[in-house]
Here is the input.
Amino acid sequence: MRAFVTGGAGFVGSTLADRLLADGHEVTAYDNFSTGQRSFVQRALGNPRYRLIEGDLLDEQRLRRDLRGHDLVFHLAANADIKDGLKHPRKDLEHNTIATFHVLEAMRGVGTSRIAFSSTGSVYGEPAVFPTPETCPFPVQTSLYAASKLAGEALLSAYAAGYGISAWIFRFVSILGERYTHGHVFDFYKQLRKDPKRLRVLGDGRQRKSYLYVQDCIDAVLHAVSTTGPGLHVFNLGTDEYVTVEQSIGLITGFLGVKPELSYTGGERGWVGDSPFIFLDTRKIRATGWAPKLTIAQSVERTIAWLVQNPDLLERRD
Amino acid sequence: MRAFVTGGAGFVGSTLADRLLADGHEVTAYDNFSTGQRSFVQRALGNPRYRLIEGDLLDEQRLRRDLRGHDLVFHLAANADIKDGLKHPRKDLEHNTIATFHVLEAMRGVGTSRIAFSSTGSVYGEPAVFPTPETCPFPVQTSLYAASKLAGEALLSAYAAGYGISAWIFRFVSILGERYTHGHVFDFYKQLRKDPKRLRVLGDGRQRKSYLYVQDCIDAVLHAVSTTGPGLHVFNLGTDEYVTVEQSIGLITGFLGVKPELSYTGGERGWVGDSPFIFLDTRKIRATGWAPKLTIAQSVERTIAWLVQNPDLLERRD
Here is the structure.
């Protein structure tokens, strides 16, 4: 396979690129390095089957030129800064919705007919059904990020219906593991590294969240793409458990051996658009034969272990 | 009220503007005249409470300047050419999704906090539940038009959650009545006017469709906006009946007194993205006290009567 990975220098994208190379595929990683990391692509750069392109998905002509000859697009590039979406609403529109349109148009232009897309469990807004299945009641969006991802999903399905592409939409819970660079485990660790005696928590700490280990996520994506037929597919990705924010703080502080004093900003939601409860029904992807290997607790520990070993990354993102 | 009507020279927009003027409001109609008609705004232009601006929603700076001082936006402007969406996919993205983003950003910029939005029953794709309620299972999009409208809905709801605007999303069935300028009743009449002996039908004629009379539609929009409180509201708009394409042909040919030979292109769908069955559950809007006054048959007859009296319009759109 000749794979084209957008966001190929990011957390999930670079990990996926490494896996595809290990599996013997050719990989083009496409990244504008707005949040991608040079260090994440170092190993891959030594592989003759790997090519890194520093490009922006908003540059449609270049994208189209570079996409030619690829079989499958893993479209992982996105503005993933959910919490601060309201500070710059244009960012989600451009980097998520419009960029996804450019990817689809480039595919149509050069005849690439398969795409896997990282959507989000946030598209369910604040659902009434838990665990939330792919077919839950038509949801209402609560964040610009989720709105832009839903717009991306809608484009993929309309292109599948109208132009005959095959599309795999994956609604991710939060992903953890090596190369993890943003999200609340990151924020907590960064705070504790500065001052192990204090930890400020957004919300009341009782928000219930789901996580998936990055290698389990990649297993699921590759498994679905290789075992399901052409057409449109929508899969939730997650484990069959969830933890409260307080519980994940317990995991982090236990692993680090610190006992900070906790202060809470209060409220059911950590920020506008934060979901008090994310727990996805993953029976559909499990029915294809996939299952996660790590628990949430194991994922959190691996993530913290990796952050401890990579202090540079925390400094750079201050 | 100082109302700002996008698509104010179009079918529904110009009719709404006339109604708002009759009700004593101030109205600014905004239209790029891509499909809007000069003749539709003639009467309003004589009213001192009316202002017409020839402007494009893609010109964000101008929009923001012109929106200042308005209380409520009726955002009806759209590329409504569903059938030919696949010929120019950028059009739905720009004129529906991006234009809606510009409207919302302009509102945020000038402090206009209320918006009513014409979405579509097509966002339900090909649902499994009939009549289809607002809370039906999370649908899959089958047309670029519906995908772009869903993206618009998602933006409205995220702006409601994030910036506190109030938003009314109306999922329309096909609207009929005076000033109707596109859709299958229009296409059938145009064919029959040229040659009353032959009629070519897209699909097998058994598609089941729903329609609503334009004045009933406007009643519903104004009723919902004035009787429901702040926040986000989603309403289906339609009647509690549907007709097959064959039945509406019967209504049209009966009214015109012609007996054409019918030929069918075949298939359940008239085109890619055509929905074989549209029938919305309207209990939610009815619970607010609204009810349609005209049946589908009456709406079709009024539409044909109007088209017969306005041959210029058919010529211009040939």
